[in-house]
Specification:
Elements lengths: L1 E3 L2 E2 L1 E9 L2 E8 L5 H11 L3 E4 L1 E2 L3 E2 L6 H4 L13 E6 L4 H11 E3 L36 H5 L2 E6 L9 E2 L5 E5 L3 E5 L5 E6 L9 E2 L5 E4 L3 E5 L5 E6 L4 E7 L5 E5 L4 E4 L5 E5 L10 E2 L5 E4 L4 E5 L5 E5 L4 E7 L2 E6 L2 E5 L5 E6 L1 E6 L4 E5 L3 E5 L10 E2 L9 E2 L5 E4 L4 E5 L6 E4 L9 E2 L3 E5 L4 E6 L5
Antiparallel strand pairs: 1-2, 1-9, 3-4, 4-8, 5-8, 6-7, 10-41, 11-12, 12-13, 13-14, 15-16, 16-17, 17-18, 19-20, 20-21, 21-22, 23-24, 24-25, 25-26, 27-28, 28-29, 29-30, 31-32, 32-33, 33-34, 35-36, 36-37, 37-38, 39-40, 40-41
């Protein structure tokens, strides 16, 4: 048996050449510790690519990615991938052998050739969904709920830890403290749950095809609309904050190294970009495909690849970025600044702590808890008015101009243009920021309650 990095690793199971590509079949040692072999796998992952195992079922294991998520403890689980195929790139084959000779010391056990395992692998990039504790769907609505335009209510099994996301077909995805993703149909019916491998790091995202992307502490996971794993990307450093998805399907996140990482639709790194200061916001994809990130030194970085970036100089650390059309609204410690798609500053308002915008107007909250309105040129509209409740998250605005305020008491406050403030109870804990689409909004509370409201031009 070979001993790699001080522990039993694997047995060489034989070779074969197909079309000039060397392929090596490896089987894990019965007592191999993942903590012992993982550093070597991570070192070799750039030199090797995984190919499907031809058994009763075709599967693929990507080196350095699926291993950590497959273990509940520090040892490899028994049913996990008793064998798989790896194909070293031809130009890297001598390097692979050199690393093997350097890291391995042969024991007294004679090197043996093993036969491919007959059972199908148990874990793959298309892993079967592991159900979470099923949430309870309240189903029935009260007459008061219907009068206020509530379409459905949903109760998750544990507290919601980020604002929901909505797919183009109306499907809602929520993430909870039990490290689960719940899918809720457009009619409020429970569809499926998926248990993740670690604590959720930030707000998930969904692409135009309905695939959902969820950041955990160490991984970025993509799920298909049916609820099975599409791929898993292991971050070189921990994931910090939420995600932004490019229209072409690539995902952007801030890593623990304070760099912007971009992952392709096949879970490979496309590029990464470092900044001159620590990022303070989640990434935002602009209309022209660039990615905007707010920085601690009071600038907004506009990035297109590793080496293409420019900085828009503002004043004070950036706390919030909101894109509406071609305009980016940045809230800093000093106030609100509107930035054009070309990167120039359009207008600025001091003493603003939160902002929301639609195609016609901008609403903001001042430091003294007043609601402000502006047109797209930054001119004030009407007079400032006090808020009806203390905010628990940033405000939102519907396409028709209804302002939405998430309250700390679990109530969603809303005001149609020209009307008085009204409220509807969502839960008993603080609300996350409401999510608005073309014809509805969804809001979740910290105690696991989720509700959808019909807009029809307003709430």
């Amino acid at each position: 048996m070979f001993r790699l990095a001080g522990g039993p690793f694997c047995r060489n199971a034989g070779f074969r050449n197909t079309e000039g590509v060397s392929r090596e079949l490896l089987t894990w040692g019965e007592s191999s510790s993942l903590d012992e072999i993982e550093p070597i796998l991570f070192l070799l992952q750039d030199l090797m690519v995984a190919i499907p195992f031809k058994g009763s079922e075709s599967r693929t294991l990507a080196l350095g990615t699926d291993l950590r998520s497959s273990r509940p403890s520090g040892r490899l689980p028994e049913p996990m991938f008793r064998c798989f195929l790896v194909a070293p790139r031809q130009r890297c084959l001598p390097i692979c052998w050199a690393l093997g000779l350097f890291a391995c010391s042969a024991s007294t056990t004679k090197l043996q050739y093993a036969q491919p395992a007959t059972e199908a692998p148990q874990i793959s990039s298309a892993a079967v969904t592991v159900p979470a504790a099923r949430p309870s769907d309240t189903g029935l609505l009260s007459d008061n709920d219907r009068m206020r335009g509530i379409l459905w209510r949903f109760r998750a099994a544990s507290p919601v830890v980020a604002r929901p996301v909505i797919a183009a077909d109306g499907t809602t995805f929520v993430v909870t403290r039990e490290n689960a993703v719940h899918s809720i149909g457009p009619d409020g019916a429970y569809r499926w749950s998926y248990t993740l491998d670690g604590p959720i790091a930030g707000v998930p995202a969904v692409d135009k095809f309905g695939n959902v992307y969820v950041p955990t502490r160490w991984h970025l996971i993509s799920l298909v609309p049916a609820g099975t794993q599409r791929w898993l990307f292991r971050a070189p450093d921990r994931v910090r904050g939420g995600l932004a998805v490019h229209p072409r399907g690539s995902a952007h996140f801030i890593g623990g190294d304070h760099q912007l990482w971009t992952v392709s639709t096949r879970a490979g790194v496309l590029w990464r970009a470092a900044f001159r200061a620590k990022p303070t916001t989640d990434p935002v994809v602009l209309q022209d495909g660039r990615v905007a990130v707010g920085l601690e030194d009071g600038a907004v970085a506009l990035v297109r690849g590793t080496y293409q970036r420019e900085y828009v100089e503002l004043s004070g650390a950036v706390r919030q970025l909101v894109r509406q059309g071609s305009t980016l609204y940045a809230v800093t410690e000093q106030g609100l600044t509107a930035v054009s798609g070309e990167g120039s500053r359009r207008w600025r308002v001091k003493n603003v702590v939160a902002v929301a915008a639609n195609a016609d107007s901008v609403v903001a909250v001042s430091r003294d808890s007043r609601l402000l309105r502006f047109d797209l040129r930054g001119e004030p509209v009407g007079s400032a008015e006090p808020l009806p409740a203390e905010l628990s998250a940033p405000l939102a605005i519907t396409p028709a101009g209804t302002v939405l305020l998430p309250g700390q008491d679990g109530a969603l406050w809303y005001r149609r243009p020209g009307e008085a403030w009204q409220s509807v109870s969502i839960g008993s804990a603080s609300l996350w920021q409401p999510v608005v689409t073309a014809n509805r909004l969804v809001v979740a509370s910290g105690d696991g309650n989720v509700a959808a409201l019909q807009l029809d031009g307003d709430v």
